[in-house]
TrEMBL record:
The keyword Oxidoreductase applies. GO terms for molecular function: dioxygenase activity. This is Phytanoyl-CoA dioxygenase family protein. InterPro entries: Phytyl_CoA_dOase-like (IPR008775). It comes from Splendidivirga corallicola. Pfam families: PhyH. Keywords: Dioxygenase, Oxidoreductase.
Length: 267
């Protein structure tokens, strides 16, 4: 099949860039076509099935474990998946939204929410990342049409401005605290279905969650986390950031630009 679209520019409008800068998320329709999505649905699902070792029944897992199956850095496992992760089209959108010269990969992550899988609690991704600035963005790529019953992302628009809750890892505590905190502050919550080929982009400090998968089908999502190509590694502030440093940026030095073989520049 043709992968031409993956390296074809997507012209962002000034309105889209402004929306992202204000709200720190955006959903964009028709970023990829149906054929490309169907292809990666098959390829990524094959790899997830091959690599997944989580055989614990759903009812025996904690809240985080019920949220999804997750597999990391699939671009290093399969050349076909690498073609998607290194897509110039997606990377240029990420760079354009953040208004940076270019982006490099932090890591990718398949997030498969099983049939009857639980919620993904409120959280901010950057709690886990030892990165010195907020110039980060995650492309959330559903591999099928994703109705509300399947558990698409829900964003708390503009919530990146608050600092309370940034010290909470994803789990029951973050869900309870942030559900109350975000509503008290009256942030607009955006929970919408995703069409095939529609992709969302969200920054590291915006709070977001996902509902339970109330269907009998797997909710299949591939994510790519980008960072400013000039991103500096900061001193880790928690154990999770220390693990992320060792896992996703091995060899990088605190106070210096992250430039390792696991963090290639895409654009």
């Amino acid at each position: 099949m043709s992968f031409e679209i993956l390296n074809t520019s997507y012209p962002l409008s000034e309105e889209q860039i402004s929306f992202y800068q204000k709200n720190r998320f955006i959903k964009i329709k028709q970023v990829l076509n149906q054929n490309v999505i169907a292809y990666y649905n098959r390829v990524i699902t094959e790899k997830v099935n091959d690599l997944n070792t989580n055989n614990t029944p759903l009812d025996q897992r904690d809240t985080y474990g019920k949220a999804f199956l997750q597999l990391f850095n699939l671009w290093r496992e399969d050349e076909r998946i690498k073609t998607l992760v290194m897509s110039k089209r997606l990377a240029q959108i990420a760079a354009g939204l953040m208004q940076v010269e270019g982006v490099r990969i932090y890591h990718d992550q398949a997030l498969y929410k099983e049939a009857n899988g639980g919620i993904t609690p409120w959280h901010a991704d950057q709690y886990y990342w030892p990165l010195a600035s907020d110039k980060t963005v995650t492309a959330w790529i559903p591999l099928q049409e994703t109705p509300l019953q399947m558990g698409p992302l829900e964003f708390s628009a503009g919530s990146h401005i608050i600092r309370e809750g940034r010290d909470l890892k994803i789990g029951d505590e973050s869900e309870a605290f942030l559900n109350k905190k975000l509503r008290v502050n009256d942030f607009k919550h955006v929970r919408e279905p995703f069409d095939v080929g529609e992709i969302s982009f969200h920054s590291g400090w915006i709070f977001h969650r996902a509902g339970a998968n109330q269907t009998t089908d797997m909710r299949k999502v591939m994510t790519i986390i980008y960072m400013d190509k000039n991103m500096i590694l900061k001193e880790p502030e928690n154990e999770n950031q220390l693990v992320d440093w060792e896992t996703w940026c091995p060899g990088a030095k605190v106070g210096q630009m992250i430039d390792t073989p696991l963090n290639p520049v895409v654009v």
